[in-house]
Prior knowledge:
GO molecular function, one term: DNA binding
Oligomer: single chain
Number of helices: 9
Protein name: Putative DNA-binding domain-containing protein
Organism: Desulforamulus putei DSM 12395
Mean pLDDT: 89
Keywords: DNA-binding
Domain Schlafen AlbA-2: 27-144
Largest sheet: 8 strands, antiparallel
Amino acid sequence: MINPFGKPLEQLEEADLHKLIEEETPEGLYVEYKEDFPRHLAKIVASFANTFGGWLIIGADARNPRNVPTSFPGIDISNDPKDRFRNICQGNITPVPLFSSKLILKAEDAKRGVLVVKIPESTYPPHITNDGRIYRRNMEGSDPVPETDRHILDRLFEKSRLNKTEVKAFINRKLQKSDQDKVMFKVMCCPVPLNLKLIDPFFVPERISRLKKMARSIWKDTLPHIIRFEPEGFAFDGENHRLEILRSGVVCYFCTIPTCVKKIERPSEPFTLDFLDYRALQVALLRTIKLAREVYRFTGYMGLFVPKVALENIAGKGLDDPKFFHFYKNTPGPQCSYSDIILPYGFSPMEAKTMETPRQVADILLRYIYRCFGFEALDTHSIARAELAR
């Protein structure tokens, strides 16, 4: 995607806007100017995402035959423009495309600012507006146009399908069943698309040291001391657990979950069941998500990632969370009926920029796991216990 500023969005200042005036940068395939929020904002955003990406600048005066900016009077910022932009996209585009924005305040008027929005080319098109259409950019003007060419529409859907297939294949390889008979728990956070080289350069002492320090801090120095370097990253490699950090931003944690046989007193007859240590499972889940968030913040990554968990050798076992022990006392055949699970079942990418706390992701995955053990939906159940949140 062409960058008319020649510098990252985060570094933009008011002087960079005047550069667009000096260079007479016109509207077109990659750039669009608006004086204020337009009614068809969703169409503009979707068209950029469905084509080659682009920049939308709100608070610009480009009302002239050449569509070049002549000034940047800005917009009123009393009603947070970034929130307004986000809400319009969330309510009018499916799926919501990725975007990042910066509000540049006017030096002469602190109540006004220019909103600069960067919309990258989508990895998972098409993005459909609420009028049921698929909009794209064209070379003949800046206005988004509804796409009707069947060949182009097929290519958009095929692009999304191929990217999803590639990610699924990679995740399945990483989460493939282990040889051992112990209960294995695997957690993975995978940025998409693959092969982003999120941490680049990777194999430099400062980067490696920073990543190792992050991981050891989160695991409270319980990680193996042995570190194994591989072409795509490195791993803390121990007998019962392994943590991988790859240059693509992929974070994987594999560990065994302790089990304990307990006797269940039931009205009919008592019986014994092998229970998984629910605390060990929750701690492993939360720590991995937390490390992924720290890695994404460290690299400035705000894009999509896919969180996945896998449990192996759980058939006939239970989960010893005391909140749900009544389930084992009152339910016929309460043992888990699955041998191995990979969750969630579908392709469910999330935005790194919206992950304010690790529990946002961990709670969702936890609910999937608990449902596989037969518990109710647990939509109010949270991993946010004080001892786990530290």
